[in-house]
Amino acid sequence: MSMAPQRDSVEFSSGLFLGAVVGAGLALLVAPDRTPRARLFRRLRKPRQRVARRARKVRASAGATANRSARLGEELCSFASELLRATGEELVQKRVRDLSWLPSRQTGPGHRLRKASDRLRDLRGKLGSGAP
After folding, report:
1. Model-level pTM?
2. Buried b (16+ CB within 10 A) or exposed e, 51-79
3. Model pLDDT, residue 1
């Protein structure tokens, strides 16, 4: 019967230890935070993490978009240069010396519109007839 007192003390010690661990865990869960700041940070932890994840995704996406926009800008600049060069060559090749189709410097918006309309009509006629 010498085993019984030793077994009782082991069970008692185990129960005491288990009770202390469970009690400490419950105390941590139930105990109020010490400061409003700590409560606020604990409460906002998950929303902060979600916002940080979304910000990383947006930053990566914005970088890719900026790179694509830069490439598009380069292509547009190249296209505009080629268009200007081709237009210049075409004008030189056709030997366009008559500049009467350009807008005049006379005053009055109505006069300018009529003159521009007349010049545009004349230009269309010249281009349609194949005259240089």
Report:
1. 0.34
2. eeeeeeeeeeeeeeeeeeeeeeeeeeeee
3. 45
Is residue 102 within 8 Å of 120, Cβ to Cβ?
no
Confidence band, pLDDT 50/70/90 cuts, at residue 6: confident
87-90 contact pairs (CB < 8 A, 24+):
none
User: CA angle at residue 120 from 115 to 125, to 5 degrees?
Assistant: 125
Once rounded to an integer, what is the mean pLDDT over residues 108-113? 56
Coil, strand or helix at 22: helix
Handedness of CA 54, 56, 57, 58 (dihedral sign): positive
* Half-sphere exposure at residue 38, Cβ-oriented, CA atoms within 13 angstroms: 5
Residue type, 57: K
Whose structure tokens read 């380069």?
A: 74
Residues 60-95: pLDDT tens digits? Answer: 888 888 888 888 888 988 888 888 888 877 776 665
With the CA atoms of 69, 74, 77 and 82 taken in that order, what torsion angle do they form, in degrees rounded to the nearest 10?
-140
* HSE (side-chain half, CA atoms, 13 Å) at 35: 3
